[in-house]
Structure to design on (267 residues):
């Protein structure tokens, strides 16, 4: 007696629907519990994140709230398996005033901290954060400015380092100079319990906790920014394949957003 391999010819509408449903459920689980893709639509995190960056956000870093689930159903409050954001993390969160809007900023102040800006220097609990000029950039893709911009490297108390832009140092090149200086000199903010003070790395062009955003409750956090998986300049769409040769930022692909900043070229 010889063995015969019998292959069932699979197919049919029912099986196709089953495969699609399984794939959608798997994607939902990955998006809800593990990683969610986001794109950067504005320049508030320059030079760390640029418009046209696409990145993965780890959902498990801070645990899960209702905002971790698509459409944010009001099925529970607070967080489960909660993890606390660390100072210096780049995090995605829902804005307190409108929880339909996602923002991405850097965690600067922890619960109980006192935060203040004095003459462009960040103070945490009365101590200035070390701030060293590391270069100047005239690259429009980095600064979105038509004049050279100073870049400063800050080092937080826990050792996290990152670069910031200073679009309006002591000059009046920018017509909004007086307005942007409001963010360089602020009152002292006390971060309430269970909330965090968030700031953009583009210090003169970021609507953050220094202004109407206010501090952000832990419940509003979605996840921690992890890695850039795609980046394209010139406000191009990833679907515009013909623009890839000229606009794709190859040096940013698979770049960790929490890595030590690369050297800045002096111009």
């Amino acid at each position: 007696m010889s063995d015969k391999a019998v292959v069932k010819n699979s197919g049919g509408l029912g099986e196709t629907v089953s495969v699609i449903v399984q794939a959608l459920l798997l994607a939902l689980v990955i998006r809800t519990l593990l990683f969610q893709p986001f794109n950067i639509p504005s320049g508030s995190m320059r030079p760390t994140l640029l418009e046209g960056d696409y990145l993965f956000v780890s959902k498990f870093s801070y645990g899960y709230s209702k905002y971790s689930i698509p459409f944010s159903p009001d099925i529970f409050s607070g967080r489960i398996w909660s993890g606390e954001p660390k100072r210096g993390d780049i995090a995605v969160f829902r804005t307190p005033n409108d929880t339909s809007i996602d923002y991405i900023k850097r965690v600067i102040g922890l619960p109980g901290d006192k935060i203040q800006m004095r003459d462009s220097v960040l103070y945490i609990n009365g101590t200035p954060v070390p701030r060293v000029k590391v270069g100047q950039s005239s690259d429009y893709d980095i600064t979105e400015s038509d004049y050279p911009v100073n870049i400063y490297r800050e080092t937080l108390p826990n050792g996290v380092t990152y670069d910031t832009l200073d679009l309006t140092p002591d000059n009046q090149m920018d017509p909004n100079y007086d307005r942007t200086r409001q963010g360089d000199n602020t009152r002292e903010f006390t971060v309430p319990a269970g909330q965090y003070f968030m700031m953009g790395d583009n210090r003169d062009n970021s609507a953050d906790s220094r202004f109407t955003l206010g501090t952000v409750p832990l419940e509003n956090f979605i996840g921690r920014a992890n890695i850039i998986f795609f980046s394209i300049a010139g406000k191009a769409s990833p679907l515009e394949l013909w623009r890839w040769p000229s606009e794709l930022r190859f040096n940013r692909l698979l770049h960790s957003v929490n890595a030590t900043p690369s050297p800045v070229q002096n111009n």
